Amino acid sequence: MALYFFDMIDGHDVPDTEGREIDGGLARVRDEALEDAREMIADAARIGIDVIGRRFEIRDEQRNVVLTVHFAEAIEPEHSVSAERSSTGHSGQ
C-alpha cells in the first residue's frame, strides 16, 4: 500500500495532513478522489453551496503531486479535463 495526501484546492487550500493508504495504483486513487468529490458536491448542494470549481491535488509520500482531480469530473466525466487531453479531435457534431 502507498500513502497519498488529498489536498483540496479552492482558493482556500485545505492540505491533507494525515493521508490515506491506498492499494491499486493511481487508477484506484483517482476513483477514491471522484467518490470523495461526489460526496462533497452532494453535501454542499444540500446547504446551497457550489463546490464544483474545487479540485484535489493528490500527493505521494514524498509530497510530489501525482494526480489532479477536478470536482467537475465527478459529475461530467465525458467533459473532464483528462478526457479533453486525450481527445481524438472529434467534436461530437
Total helix count? Answer: 3
| Biggest sheet record | 4 strands, antiparallel
Q: Report how far the terminal alpha carbons are from each other.
A: 44 Å
Strand order across the largest sheet? 2-1-3-4
Give the helix proportion (percent range).
Answer: 25-40%
Radius of gyration: 14 Å
Please state the overall shape, judged from the principal axes of the Cα atoms: globular
Q: For the residues shown, what is the average pLDDT?
A: 87
Low-confidence stretches: 82-93
Series of H and E elements: EEHEEHH
Total strand count, please? 4
- State the secondary-structure class: alpha+beta
Strand content: 15-25%
Number of folding domains?
1
Quick description:
The chain is an alpha+beta fold and 93 residues long.
Describe, in plain words, how this protein is organized in 3D.
The chain is α+β, with helices and mostly antiparallel strands and 93 residues long. The chain has one domain (2-85). The protein has helices at 25-46, 72-75, 81-85; strands spanning 2-9, 20-22, 55-59, 65-70. A 4-stranded antiparallel β-sheet has the order 2-1-3-4. A hairpin with a 5-residue loop joins strand 3 (55-59) and strand 4 (65-70). The longest helix has 22 residues, at 25-46. The termini are far apart.
